Amino acid sequence: MTVIDPDTQAGWVAEAEADAEDEAEEMPLSLRLSIADALTLGNATCGFMAVYFTTTGILIPVVNGSQESGMARHSAATAVILMLAAAIFDLFDGLVARKLRSSPMGAELDNLSDLISFGLAPAYFVLVWGMVADDAHQKVSAVAAIVVLLAVVLRLARFSCVTMKDGMFQGMPSPFGALTVVSIVLLELPFIPTLLAIIGTAWLMVSRVEYPKPRGILAVAMLGWIVSAMGLLAAWAFDAPGGHLLLQTGCALQVVLGAVIPLFATARRVNTFRYNRREARAAQHS
Q: Which residues contact 235 (CB under 8 A, 6 or more apart)?
């Protein structure tokens, strides 16, 4: 029989608790999640659930031979709303990180979450569209989905390696690109124009076109646009009067923005280049 000294046991327990507290205090900062990190994880969760609703509400019913369009419409709207929610999380985690703090692994968490929500989710949405649309070609759509996914992977990797001037992104931001891709699909254009627009958006994400970061008034405008898009999707999902037309209008505006912003950015870059050349010539002649 083992005899335990109460005094010795009590001392051992107290010492163990003290060691545990010391270990908690000495926990590396890289293992502590901040508020911004929690928002980033919310981004990843929304992206995963978007894939879930795309599968269960759109793909599986079609595979099983279901002809109920209402369920597919609800699921498609829910999936896109979740991507929009992911974009809101992505917007606010950066704002919170600047105002408060972010853990040392915050940047890595952000990239991984963006890959799920703005890479995997829209690419999978394109893939499923190619499997269920009447005029789509499954294998070609799979290639387009891979192009979207790889564009986001390359863009996020470049973002981690390339230092840009403050307030600017190089290439279309992945949240904006993801929303443009799903807007193109929801427009229900013929297969070839849809395919070309999707590949064009993927190219813009890896291009060197400069895009302004959503800060200040631009962040407020972006948030308002996302909330409005959620409302349009909800109206479409519940078959509200004019809901389909409103959704088509919203998707068209998203695509137009995706095409116009690079034109303005390129024109500004050309004007800056010409101005610098004139200044250099004036300095040489003075």
A: 242, 243, 246, 247
What's the predicted TM-score (pTM) here?
0.81
Residues in the chain with pLDDT values less than 70: 1-33, 67-70, 101-102, 163-167, 265, 286
pLDDT of res. 33: 67
Rounded to 5°, angle at Cα 230 from 89 and 88? 10
- Number of neighbours of residue 169 by Cβ within 10 angstroms: 18
Residue burial 117-134, b: 16+ Cβ < 10 Å; e: rest = bbbbbbbbbbbbbbebbe
Written as six digits, the tokens of 123 are 């690419």
Identify the H or E element spanning 133.
none
β-pairing verdict for 210-212 and 168-170: antiparallel
DSSP-assigned letters across all residues of 169-180 = EES--HHHHHHH
Nearest Cα neighbor of 140 from 188, 63, 195 is 195
Tell me the per-residue pLDDT of 33-87, one tens digit each, with 9 for 90 and over: 678 888 899 999 999 999 999 999 888 888 787 766 667 889 999 999 999 999 9
Q: What is the pLDDT of residues 123-148, one digit of tens each?
A: 999 999 999 888 878 899 999 999 99
d(CA 81, CA 125): 13
The candidate with the shortest Cα–Cα distance to 251, out of 68, 100, 76, 59, is 76
Calpha distance 106→102 (Å, rounded): 6
- The structure tokens 């999936």 sit at 79
Which conformational region is residue 188 in: left (phi greater than 0), alpha (psi within -120 to 50 degrees), or beta? left
